[in-house]
Amino acid sequence: xxxxxxxxQPQFFNVIHPLNDVPxxxxxxxxxxxxxMTRAVRISLxxxxxxxxxxxxxxxxxxxxxxxxLHKTF
Length: 74
Description:
Number of helices: 1
Order of helices and strands: H
Structural class: mainly alpha
Shape: elongated
């Protein structure tokens, strides 16, 4: 008759809250220069910027319309 051995040993992890952790030294960004970007990255970031500007303007318009500042006249 075969016997089964249980060799499982659970692992325990210590969780440390960030406020109780030892502070780490921050990296300095001085002297790094500009990041090289390809044309596709520049275009996609420009499109993203334009999209965010348009959405912000639409949100502002909607908020002003709900507040009654903008009156619709027909």
